Amino acid sequence: MDQIVIRGGQRLKGRIPISGAKNAALTLLPCALLTDEPLTLRNLPRLADVDGFGHLLNQLGCSTTIEGSRPEDFGRVMTARTTTLTSTVAPYDIVRKMRASILVLGPLLARAGEATVSLPGGCAIGNRPIDLHLKALEAFGAEIELASGYVKAVAPGGRLAGGKFTFPVVSVGATENAVMAAVLAKGTCVLENAAREPEIVDLCNCLVAMGAHIDGIGTETLTIEGVDRLHGATYRVMADRIEAGSYACAAVITEGDVELVGAKAGEMEATLAALREAGATVEGTKSGIRVAMSGRAQPVTLSTAPYPGFATDMQAQFMAMATLGTGASLFTETIFENRYMHVPELARMGCDIQVKGRTAVVRGVDHLVGAPVMATDLRASMSLIIAGLAAQGQTEVNRVYHLDRGYERLEEKLQAVGADIERISAG
Ligand code: UD1
Predict the structure, then answer these.
(1) Tell me, what's the pLDDT at 69?
(2) pLDDT tens for residues 307-333?
(3) Closest CA to ligand 1's atom 1
(4) Tell me, what's the pLDDT at 74?
(5) In a domain? residue 40
(6) CA separation for the pair 116, 371 (Å, rounded)
(7) Mean pLDDT of 51-62
(8) Residues 264 and 314 grouped into a single domain
(9) What gap in Å lies between CA 176 and CA 28, rounded to an integer?
(10) 130 lines ligand 1 (CB under 6 A)
């Protein structure tokens, strides 16, 4: 298996191009199931999860073609066309490897009136149930059965009737599935306490470009008036705010100065506020956001929350940054129950972190020492990279496939701003 080796201590300086957002791509791709016309997505990141999703679409009868697949191209263009659905089943083998596969449930139900999707099961960061996805679809008229590890959803008469659902807990994935199911309903569907993440705005804007009628985009109440059919569209995937935030943390911990090219400040205010709290200079530039730091980070107090709150997907990276802070930082994780798995690995590098239930206290230490560490999930892996960039000596990050799911050409982007980082291929 590949390994990433970092010799820490280099200050990051220069420009980092920010890729298309993984989490937006993973909800825009299944939109191709909603129409028989082509959907062209621009600025798609080159990531294992995006390729995996493409294969799932192929299994359902969607043909995909990719341009811009030269190794030097950032931002690929994929045209996906589902002239006819050849299957409405997302099998266990695919869903098990890629949780986001659950996002074909809504579009298949909308287009074919039925869908059979394997239950995703638990994952490294918690139980992650899908009960809210199913309850929202039921509220719109779907009949749902669970059997042999699969969810089977049927829309009586071939189309969802419409209805109203109030989320008891904000869920990004359940909001996405419900919106994609609703766009072809017979009647009107209303979602209350819907997630407002920028990736959901991206999804809604793409669906509107395909002919959907959605009101309240960007708010917690979405009203979707079903239409008889959607048409094709060309749509550009938004910039990855989590990737941008991750490199910002890397810049702060190395006391660097980077420009995150393509990043949009309006989509990552909570992250930028946290960077300022740590003492970083954060300013908009013509092409993105500049993050610069001199001296060690000041302590931060951060609690994760649904958007526009501080993103759970940024917690591990800020924690890595805080390990070299000037005092004690306090983290509270409110979204996932098991999202501190980076802590024992960071401890191997000399960090002082105490976890108690959902909170973690990080006391800044004078220096970190490189060590062999193991990535446990995507964002936890990035926290190890960030710590490694500032640690004395060599850090070897193992199980790099987690990083490949969500960071496009990580080592290349970091090398270009001065990091001493390389991938050792297993061959
Ligand atoms: C998405 C993101 C992930 C991010 C998370 C929270 C993608 C592909 N993934 O994940 O990177 O960390 O949002 O911002 O976009 N829940 C239920 N029942 C459900 C669904 C969710 O109880 O049916 C709970 C979850 O266990 C969790 C909370 O709701 O505690 C939020 O999860 P959710 O927003 O659904 O996360 P994902 O969509 O899986």
Answers:
(1) 60
(2) 999 999 999 999 999 999 999 999 999
(3) 172
(4) 72
(5) yes
(6) 45
(7) 96
(8) yes
(9) 10
(10) yes
- Judgement on whether residues 200 and 306 belong to the same structural domain of the protein: no
Average pLDDT on 171-189 reads 98
Q: Is 172 in the pocket of ligand 1 (CB under 6 A)?
A: yes
Residue 55's domain comprises 22-226
Please tell me whether residues 312 and 410 are part of one structural domain. yes
Question: Does one domain contain both 212 and 336?
Answer: no
Do residue 172 and residue 87 come from a single domain?
A: yes
Give the predicted TM-score (pTM) of the model. Answer: 0.97
Last residue of one domain, picked from the residues 186, 202, 226: 226
Binding residue ranges for phosphoenolpyruvate: 22-23
Answer yes or no: do 265 and 183 share one domain: no
Model pLDDT for residues 123-179, shown as the tens digit of each residue: 666 667 899 999 999 999 999 999 999 999 999 999 999 999 999 999 999 999 999
Nearest residue (by CA) to ligand 1, atom 11, is 313
Catalytic-labelled residue, pool 62, 123, 206, 351: 123
Does residue 375 share a domain with residue 332? yes
Characterize the bridge pairing of strands 188-192 and 221-225: antiparallel
Among 127, 151, 335, residue to substitute to test ligand 1 (most atoms within 8 Å of Cβ): 335
136 lines ligand 1 (CB under 6 A): no
Percent residues over pLDDT 90 in the chain: 89
- CATH number at 321 reads 3.65.10.10
- Nearest-atom number in ligand 1 for the CA of 134 is 23
Here the contacts of 421-427 (C-beta below 8 Å, separation 24 or greater) are 421/4, 421/5, 421/6, 421/7, 421/385, 421/388, 421/389, 422/4, 422/5, 423/2, 423/3, 423/4, 423/5, 424/2, 424/3, 424/4, 424/5, 425/2, 426/1, 426/2, 426/3
Residue 123 catalytic? yes
